[in-house]
Write a structure and sequence with these properties.
The complex is a heterodimer of chains A (100) and B (622). Chain A is of the alpha/beta class and 100 residues long. Chain A is built from three helices and five strands. Chain A is globular and about 30 Å long. The chains are: A alpha/beta (100), B alpha+beta (622).
Chain lengths: 100, 622
């Protein structure tokens, strides 16, 4: 189960994530991200309440990172918990993501 | 036929057509009616005039008849009382003069004149004359017997006479009263005078009674009296009578249709005004309008209602059903049976939908078949023969791939390099389905080609990354764990790129091989990959797997996890410790697979489960 709260302000958007990002919730996460218009140049993913992510979730995140890189936008990861941080480290993604 | 505009309802189109047709039809009927009316005007006018004139003639004669009859009845009553008085020519003469009769004749029942107003007639016998016979016969049927325009009066020849004859039974007398032409004419004149003044032709028309020279004696309009009817008009009126037609002339300041008859010295002319003719025209036109317009409106409404009932409603029903179908509800059936055509249409549509459903199912099945074929190909490209190197005693090897329902992206590979090092690879492509499988094939062949070409493992992975990064619009990536194994020394040079950590089983203890972790392959062109080292001792087992193992879920949404993996490995290894290396690897993999399945219970497999197991014995021969 994954709950999302998308707040848009000018050209930036913040996505509050709560729950688990796995094979079943990854598609709805992907859809919510696709609804964010191209006019938004800065996206922040707040992972404070995100308990878990699987490889399916990683894929959606990587796609988002690619999309922002391509359009010259900025993707920031906020309040990354220990478990998620471990996944990022294990998969060598930490190098390529902006984590605050 | 003109193209029908696509966004107008049938109903509206038909209504338009009906309105236009009605208007045209009305126009045609109206024109035809009017033409008929106008063409027959003259004939009707003639008939009207003709009948009025004939009526006038009859009325005139009736008038005369009645006068004679009444007078005769009076005198008959008188004679019945005092008949002998009458058998006296002098008396009769005085009476004739007084009452305006030209002759009064009294005869016996044998036809012999006893007395007459003209004394010369006395003594004559008319027994054998047709005149007498006629009277006798007449008296039998009606007494008094009146005859108008008699031509066989024996004592007066060459003229027409009117008479009344009656029988006086008590005195055996027959009496005849005669009115000659003069009286006749006078009577008629009086009659016509009266009649003409009280009779109109249609609304504004009139009758004229004139002398032979055209002078008007009597007319409905007093002002006509004494005026002259122009000779041409006079003649035309009489000609019309002969020709049985009427014609329009100008008379006394207005246009009239005229018809004239001559009757006992008088000419009667009937005049039907043009004004009245026009009036009749207007009346008929109005009548047509009043009759036809409601009729056409009623017909249109009936036709529209019929059309709606038998066509439009049926078609609308079909349209609704079709909308259901196009929205995806292929179970919807069209069922409009209002007419044969609608039934055929319904059946036709249903058959088409059924056929489509069949085709869709067949296509889906073909797609499934293709997926199965793709899966087969995928499996076939992986080395599947085990044990793969039975003659190599220094190690045992087993690998398996259990794909999830769809075509997967996991793969394993192993092959020898030219320098006799063994390469083992396990990989997991992001995504599933045919795109993932294609990417997997690309990755596998690239790795092998680059490795075989002699590149060190880190450079190989670096180049693989660059190769896969290009032409990667779908932004797929692959996790890889690849190692070059020196079978003489047990030394493995490996790259760990985003993949799950392998398990090292040594002396019954498990541990995760967790050193440097590089990132996925294929998503960052600038990614770097580092060569790392692991040294296997004889008896060690290295277990490679994909996250389909550790991320398998049960109904309680629990993950299989690392702990369970370590446990099952430890458990199994204790059991199978004495086995030959290849069998050992196979049994270990099978056991782990079974454990995962048991853990997941009824939950469907959501990810590919792939594993590769290498047991290093270190000895060349056993």
């Amino acid at each position: 189960m994954l709950n999302l709260d998308v707040k848009q302000e000018g050209t930036s958007a913040t996505v509050m994530m709560e729950g688990m990002l796995d094979t079943s919730s990854a598609p709805s996460f992907k859809e919510a991200l696709s609804k964010i218009p191209d006019s938004i140049t800065s996206i922040t993913l707040d992972m404070e309440k995100l308990r878990y992510t699987s490889s399916a979730g990683l894929r959606v995140i990587l796609e988002l990172q690619n999309r922002m890189d391509k359009s010259g936008g900025q993707l920031t990861f906020m309040h990354v918990g220990e478990m998620i941080r471990e996944v990022f480290d294990d998969t060598g993604m930490t190098e390529f993501l902006t984590i605050v | 036929m003109k193209k029908v505009p696509g966004d107008v309802h049938i109903y509206q189109l038909i209504r338009r057509i009906l309105v236009i047709t009605s208007v045209l039809l009305f126009g045609v009927i109206f024109t035809i009616w009017l033409t008929v009316v106008w063409l027959s005007e003259k004939t009707r006018t003639y008939e009207e005039l003709s009948s009025i004139l004939a009526e006038l003639e009859r009325d005139g004669e009736d008038w005369l008849y009645d006068w004679l009859y009444d007078d005769a009845s009076l005198i008959k009553a008188d004679m019945a009382q005092d008949g002998d008085k009458w058998v006296n020519s002098l008396y009769l003469k005085r009476m004739a003069q007084g009452d305006g009769f030209t002759a009064v004749v009294v005869m016996n029942t044998e036809g012999r004149v006893l007395a007459a107003s003209d004394h010369l007639l006395a003594g004559h016998d008319y027994h054998d004359t047709p005149f007498w016979k006629d009277i006798m016969k007449g008296i039998e049927t009606g007494d008094p017997y009146v005859k108008i325009n008699a031509t066989d009066v024996p004592w007066i020849q060459g003229t027409t006479n009117d008479y009344a004859a009656f029988l006086v039974p008590d005195h055996d007398l027959v009496c005849v009263f005669m009115a000659n032409e003069e009286v006749h004419d006078k009577m008629l004149k009086d009659c016509y005078d009266y009649l003409v003044r009280n009779r109109r032709v249609e609304l504004t028309g009139y009758l004229l009674v004139c002398e032979d020279d055209g002078q008007v004696l009597f007319s409905y309009h007093k002002e006509h009296n004494g005026q002259m009817v122009p000779g041409k008009v006079f003649r035309t009126a009489l000609e019309n009578h002969l020709r049985e037609q009427t014609s329009e002339v100008k008379l006394f300041g207005e246009n009239v249709y005229i018809l004239g008859v001559q009757h006992t010295g008088l000419t009667i002319i009937g005049c039907y005004t043009a004004k009245d003719v026009g009036r009749v025209r207007v009346l008929s036109s109005t009548m047509v309008l009043i009759l036809i317009v409601p009729m056409l409106v009623a017909i249109s409404m009936i036709l529209t209602a019929l059309l709606k009932r038998y066509v439009v409603n049926g078609v609308s029903g079909i349209v609704l059903s079709l909308q259901e179908i196009t929205e995806g509800n292929l179970q919807e059936e069209v069922d409009e049976r209002g007419s044969r055509e609608l039934s055929l249409l319904s059946d036709g549509i249903n058959q088409t939908v059924d056929k489509l459903k069949t085709m869709i199912n067949e296509a889906a099945k073909r797609y499934d078949d293709e997926l199965v074929m793709a899966k087969t190909i995928q499996h076939a490209t992986l080395p599947w023969l085990f044990p793969p190197y039975p003659h190599h005693k220094e190690f045992g090897l087993y690998a398996m791939m259990d794909t999830a329902k769809q075509v997967g992206g996991d793969f394993y590979d192993f092959f020898f390099l030219r320098d006799n090092r063994l390469v083992i690879v396990i990989a997991d492509v992001s995504d599933k389905g045919i795109p993932a499988a294609l990417f997997m094939m690309r990755a596998k062949t690239t790795i092998k080609a680059l490795a075989v070409s002699g590149l060190p493992v880190d450079e190989m992975v670096r180049r693989t990354n660059q190769e896969l990064y290009s032409h990667n619009e779908a932004h797929m990536f692959v996790t890889i764990w690849v190692g070059y194994v020196d079978l003489k020394t047990g030394r493995i040079s490996y790259v760990h790129a985003g993949h799950t950590c392998p398990v090292l089983l040594r002396d019954g203890q498990t541990s995760f091989v967790k050193q440097k972790r590089n990132t996925f392959v294929g998503w960052r062109s600038a990614a770097d990959y580092e060569e790392q080292e692991l040294i296997l001792r004889p008896g060690d087992t290295l277990y490679l797997y994909t996250d389909g193992v550790t991320e398998a879920f049960n109904e309680q949404e629990e993950e299989y996890g690392n702990n369970r993996l370590e446990n099952i490995i430890t458990e199994t290894s204790a059991r199978i410790n004495e086995e030959e290396a290849n069998d050992y690897c196979k049994d270990l993999c099978t056991s782990i697979r079974a454990d995962v399945k048991e853990f997941a219970n009824n939950m469907p497999q959501s990810d590919d489960i792939t594993m590769l197991c290498l047991k290093y014995t270190g000895s060349r021969e056993e």
